[in-house]
Amino acid sequence: MSAKAEAVGAPALELDGVHKRFHQGRRVVEALAGLSITVQPAFITGLLGPDGAGKTTLMRLAAGLLLPEAGTVRVLGHDTRANSAAIQELIGYMPQRFGLYEDLTVQENLNLYADLQGLDATRRSARFEELLRLTALGPFGKRRAGALSGGMKQKLGLACSLLRAPRLLLLDEPTVGVDPISRRELWSIIKTMRTQGVSVLVSTAYLDEAELCDDIVLLHHGRLLAQQAPAAFGEPLTGRCYLVKHPTLRRRALQARLVAREGVIDALVQADGVHVVLGGTQAQALAGEDWQPVAPRFEDAFVSLLRSAPAASATPALANPGLIPTAAMVGPAGGDVSAMSLPAAAAPAVPAADTVIEVHELRRFFGSFQAVKGISFSVSRGEVFGLLGANGAGKSTTFRMLCGLLSASSGTLRVAGVDLHTARSAARARIGYVAQKFALYGNLSVAQNLRFFASAYGLRGARRKARLDWAQREFDLGGFLDAGTAELALGFKQRLALACALMHEPSILFLDEPTSGVDPLARREFWQRINQLAESGVTVMVTTHFMDEAEYCDNLVLMSLGEILALGSPQEIRARVRSVQLPEPSMEDAFIELIQAHEAQIRRAA
Asked: In 3D, which of 602, 51, 20 has the Cα closest to residue 322?
């Protein structure tokens, strides 16, 4: 009997009492602890959980790349210990960092993966044509993979994983680091796979994507916390979710007030107010607050379940970093940052004027290609300013020029009172920078990274010691100073990167997609810190593909094809696309509507 015939009617994936452990130095981390789940055929099953929950380990076990220490993993009826070769014929697997060959073209990558997967030569032409049409990569077959946008790279990786027409598709965070338009395109492909009878197991850090799934597996410390349909998660929270508005308080200030209040499980800036989840049904409104009940979301259930779940016994920085913030970082309600001793804005050598970043007619050419086309904006002291755009919009180029990492071709560019054309190094001394992939040294320990950055910023003597002590205490790093940085999961890497960036008390902080791939609870902790910094007078400029994070910005720029499409507050930009069809547009709605309209206009003009 053939492998495919043998597996007909079986669940797509079964884990029965699975244990998997890893050794990290002298530590033993239990990634999965007696896990039992069943993934139904022809379902899109979402795999969710905070950093260190065991999602990637589960994916690798399902792909046959790892074997369990105990328990059984069956893929389409086949035991991974006994039938790994048969399983490889039945699955497609796209890991977090899919190995595209960037010097090869789109078509050459497809050819290479077809060879590696043993795809029959007689089937290739038709399969290539089908996948290029599905992913809309047909016109780019001769383009180098390295020249593709982030979203297009992800679609090419997905096409390579689909070459053998798998019956089970394993996708490990396929949408991390891509813009909202590309995310929708990728999910359109995933839904198409389901209509063709393919079972899909997809892990994601975007909780809105969970609501697109048929079933959700929620992991916590390597154990199953819950498995059910997305809508079922929110049912226990009915009557406990509110949108709170205040006529005079800014949304960030209102959030800080609400998140510290007894009985509040979660408070998140959203649209024109703050979305609140209560532990009970009684709203404790203060004078001036307007509480309106709203329907619970999956994200509300996710946060509520995880904040009430038991803590792990393993070292959290390695086994489950960034999951439940410690009592030193958040209060009983899960978000009080009032006790933080974050640095005040560094006043020395910065002009007293409110404008600390000034951009006028900024341009950047790469050969004959104009990546940034005469953009202008300014940022005030203590402002959180967002720089948004689709992959390839020019925002990363703009960001690098603002940080002094890339010279401008022309235009005015002043940061912290310094002209970046003539005094780039002086400007760098006044800014902190958190890179998208975290500019940490993985072969150094946490303590060594802190000491290195303290020295790089010129800290000496008593001030150096004081800042190192501050970083260890404020970011809860004291227990992990000897841990290798490469071993840390994303939540703790993010925390360490922010500590290093703030070591010299900069007056301006640049954040380049700092929460990409980080779980929602670690993102909340991160933004509590950023909001506190802004309140202390530090100016923050951030790029992000999480549109809910754009709501934290006082003002933002939306870029497309090197130009500014919109400039203003989140409320003003959402108002640009309000219509009968979209009476209450989200920031993601505004992002997609404005960019797609601009790109359509460019195509018509061409």
From this structure: 51
